[in-house]
Amino acid sequence: MKHFKAMITITLRKSILDVQGKTVEHALHSTNFTSIDQVRIGKYVELTVHAADTQQAMSIVDDACKNIIANPIMEDHHIALEEISVGEHA
Length: 90
Description:
Blueprint: E1 2-12, H1 19-30, E2 42-51, H2 54-69, E3 75-84
Antiparallel strand pairs: 1-2, 1-3
């Protein structure tokens, strides 16, 4: 069994207003960071998954995202995998 570190980025879907992002954008503009716009705030999750190969690891993590980690109605998720040695931790 191989060990993989999954790095998951979760963001609101583009069609959904990101209130937190808009608040940060307004704060940036009011403090002279006017060249920054379209701020979106998301979540970052790291976990370790044990699987036979990269494809199985991706499938496990994707299922976990769709069922528990992310809200598939409002959020998109992107997964990056990295094989790690047994002693390494996420």
